[in-house]
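Handout, section 4.2: multi-component inputs.
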Amino acid sequence: MRKSLVVVLAVVFVLGLAPGALSAQDDDCVISFLTVWSGEDELPNWESMVQPFVEETGCTIEVESTRDIVPVLTTRVEAGNPPDIAGVPSFGAIRTFLEQGEVVPLDFLDMDRMAEQFGEVWLELGTYDGTLYGVFPRAALKSLVWYSPPAFEAAGYEVPTTWDEMLDLCETIFDDGAACFSIGLESGPASGWPATDWIEDIMLRTNDLETYDAWVSHDIAWTSDEVTRAWEAFGEIVGDEDYLYGGSSGTLSTNFGEAPCPLFTDPPGAYLHRQASFIQSFIQDCPGGEDLVPGEDFDFFLFPSIDEEYGTPGLGAADLFVMFNDNDNSRALIEFLSQPEALAGWLEGGGSGIATNNEFPLDQYPDVLSARAAELLQQVDSFRFDGSDLMPGDVNQAFWTGTLNFVQNPSDLPQILETIEATASEAYVD
Amino acid sequence: MRSQESRWTPALFLGPAVFLLFMLMVYPSLDTIRLSFMDRLAENYVGLDNYEYALTSTRMKEAFRNNLLWLFVFTIGTVVLGLLIATLADRVRYESFAKAIIFMPMAISFVGAGVIWKFVYDLKPTGNPLQPNPQIGVLNAILVSIDPDDTLGDAIAWLRDEGAPVERGDVLDAIVAVETEAIQEAVAEGDLTQERAGELLDKLPDRARKYVEGELPPREEEWQALGQWPRVSIDAINQALATMPEGSGRAICNAIPYACALRIERIEEDAIDDAVDAGTLTPEQASDLEDDLRSMALAYVKDGTRPGVEGLQTFDQWDEIIAGVNEINVRAVNSSLDTGVEPVDWIRRSGINNLALITVGVWIWTGFCMVVLSAALKGIPAELLEAARVDGANEFQVFFQVIIPQLMPTLTVVTTTMVITVLKVFDIVYVMTAGNFGTEVIANRMYLEMYGGNREFGRASAIAVVLMLAIVPMLVYNVIQFRRQEARR
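Output:
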């Protein structure tokens, strides 16, 4: 009786240890990869992107996906069990790991080749303290305003080229009984992020680039005139219930992925939607969206200029790949991701994105809109990375919350900015 | 031999439990206390800084306030409802069925419940009277269905009351005409089959009539010119309005006040801008005036309320402007018709949202209270109740003077258990609002400090310790009560 219990316990114990013991002895090439992409959306694109690498090396890439990447990464790094490679939204999210030297420097890459193939801005963004820590194969252009050309034609509207023209258009659209913008800020615990993109785009269009950078690195305060003005400009749209599809409560309760849909109903509920290039796949998920032809039934224009002096800069984001375990397999994967052809598989798999590698051929883009976004990215007067992604996590969080409160009560702006400033003044200290 | 075995037996039985308890409870707790005195990355000791933050920062104050609200409403809600259901269910034949239903939510995780209730509370943009949007959230769907919005048909009726020669038939004809043309075009281009077009055309008069009564045709029907229906309707109305004698604007304004308020707003805004250019108004005065312009104009149009501010440039002409109104637009009709019951943003509107979240908690935990109390209820000797009834006590007296005192020990345990549960509340808040819109709670703040991106080990630990300190007295009390209760048996 007692013996059998011991046997059972022993079996359980061994079984519990077995997977760990086995994988430790394994010579097979297995690369663990932590990402926010999941099965329904972009994970298949990733699989299609690394397909050539997998075929060539015979490596297996073990994917772990999570929506809450920072907590998972924190737990795993703290436990001494980090993934080999992680795909993160920006350095802001992993700032602490960089500070603590837990990210592996990519000094094995040929820096001359990198400098030749990548724009300076991308290398700079992957660099921390003078060393390259991350590669960006894929970028997204965020400064896009989406619309439906057939709806515009039917209503006789023209694409606005300046902020004031856009406000005038909003007034006209309102007179015609529809809403100007459809904005959706709901995104679970990250609710509010689409509004931070708005404010960043406006910051870039109402200030010089140095001021924008100073804002991101908190060298100017959130309560400064420059920042306040940007929020107030955003308020010219979101402060007016009439310009928003569903008013402010609709804006707060609508999921960002469903927000473009009212542009494509008949009659349109709204006419404009500001969102990054990735929203294309969401548009085609709208009711009836599978029949919409990119470039004909939906299209975009560059978020218009506000002040001529600052032109129309581009705001963007990119996927950053960083390495936590230094081994040959991980190195090979990073090397692969830095090559010009890396993005091809992603696009073939139906994903959207813009190559950051200059040697990626324009004709490889799957549809007109992707190619146009890539062209626009090269044409913009200047380019800046999504500022909120670069800020410390606390500040980003406070920024999200602040935009939600602003949409709910635009008149609370001074308190909202003071709250974010209070968080920022602590978060940037070290 | 015997004595040795008896010495080791307790150790053998207790060992695993003590070991696990130490590894999973004691050690982490002690380490958390240590970390709570250290800085962000647990590198240096910082004294009581983290506790200062945990007790005095605005975000934590908000969390404390909300936890207190949860504490009262949730605890009272679950215990009172649990007791009520346990008592009532005790007296019906389908007791086990009723109890199973109430207990069911206990089987759902907090996260699952949060997701389910997020749908219950869901709010979709409302659209407007000419282009309404369905609500998929149960609560809002019920709200919106209580009192349907005024319809285009009502607007037509008001205009007729004011003497405007608007025929409902004209509006229907206009819609039918534009839709028929669009359908025929679609057939010619091969987008619709002849057969399908015939079906649509048969339905068209009925659909147009329903549209005027405030009902949009279902999405799946392939109407070709639905987007033009509002404008075509308004054009038909405007044609009729154009036949009215000059100066009939007042009548139109009585029916569609916004038509006139918008006209006044437009003219006054231009005048204010001119005044700023001429230097008679400062930009600040102008922007203040413009902020309230629409509501002032609307009040004047509706019931002649005179604006309570100085500086309006064209006020003396407002009557003239109103009289001159000779048309309406879609926006004016939409605005004038916006009178139905507004759906509520349950989880974002302050004042309601905390209660909406607490409701979810009560929904889950009432079952637990009910089951425990029900068991205790069954344990009350029947002769006690009999005796009370024989002595002439009515049912209320039996309940309050016999049952409640008998249940007291159990009630205390249930209540303290609920207090401990509610102090730790996290999942519901994290899933439904993530602590935004004034719904922050202590445990959510702890999670965000730790995982919100900055890895604030120190602060998160300090908050955890504060939470633990709040819970421990309840825990101790609970154990003492439980022992007493056991001893009594």
